[in-house]
């Protein structure tokens, strides 16, 4: 049996941040992970350049059953605090768009920074350890295939089940249930949406076509690109709205955002009476999309032959295209997991379980999910840091 002050399960973004923070406070920290390398998701994030935070990070940009929960951690360790560490390590970065910060060269720089800080604090990181049991007596006892470890504080940082082929598991939920912590049903988020056959007939041949659009669900809307896929819809606006979408609901696409499409088409009838509708639509939309919509969903013919009523209906199709997704592409393709360990069971200041002193949960395992664009890493850093201050 080996003893530590803190055992952290999971050597991902949140676990490493918690480890280096606790180690700076003089804690003897052990990090255990079943993977053979740490921080796998950091390395693949942002196409290998890691969108590590967002300048516009704010609690309203996170989903949770308790929308207030994330405020404390996000305000105690902000995007600017993380940026200070990135700058101190001389990691070159840039803002791509919408406040999203990426490494100039490689995500490896972020992982190396975290590992260097852990190394400076003598954090003991042990990989390829299969955890078979976690029990609580006077201290927490973690049984693995390579030894038994003990500590008075245990931090669960094993993430969510998105992208299982990368070693992601629902381990945190099993552990939570075991210690009596409720779990908000996990669901795939930031995930492509699938559509039923009638929409697919239109969308499948458009696979690869992208368009500027607003995607809305209820009162939430995002304007960015949408991308047609062989299974339905993807692209940043769709990934964003997928986190808000629930099965059975419709999403509304505006594929001519900022333009009153009906007024535009009626105006073009005067200006280009002999032009085909699909030609006029191509002034607003990518050509293939204009063609497909005109051929499959809209009246055919020269503009002069189309009534204003028909053009208004066509404009409606562009500004208010209702799609009822059949589902999502699931955890296999989800960038994150929404839902997770219920925040009601945790202190928002420390991430410690209210009823189980010494047990902490951080990162994606918790029912806090950020928008696309660096928000989820910021949650990992913030929740990891506050727990690291408390363990
Ligand atoms: P994370 O998943 O990082 O770490 C969990 C760790 O626990 C892993 O090392 C895993 O091996 C380990 N583990 C799991 N089960 C275990 C078990 N049973 N026993 C032992 N260890 C176990 N976010 C963002 O802000 N910007 C971005 O650019 C991206 N890009 C991105 C791309 C892709 C393809 C994905 C899948 C995700 C993103 N994300 C993102 C999301 C981001 O990666 C995610 O929110 C964080 O990695 C969550 O950090 P955690 O530390 O909570 O979990």
TrEMBL record:
Domain RsdA/BaiN/AoA(So)-like Rossmann fold-like residue range list: 5-389
Gene3D superfamilies linked: FAD/NAD(P)-binding domain, HI0933 insert domain-like, Translation factors
Keyword Flavoprotein included in the entry's annotation: yes
Domain RsdA/BaiN/AoA(So)-like insert: 187-336
Cofactor(s) annotated in UniProt: FAD
UniProt-listed InterPro entries: BaiN-like (IPR004792), BaiN-like_dom_sf (IPR023166), FAD/NAD-bd_sf (IPR036188), RsdA/BaiN/AoA(So)-like_dom (IPR055178), RsdA/BaiN/AoA(So)_Rossmann (IPR057661)
Source organism superkingdom: Bacteria
Name under which the protein is recorded: Flavoprotein, HI0933 family
UniProt keyword annotation of Flavoprotein present: yes
Assigned keywords, A-Z: FAD, Flavoprotein
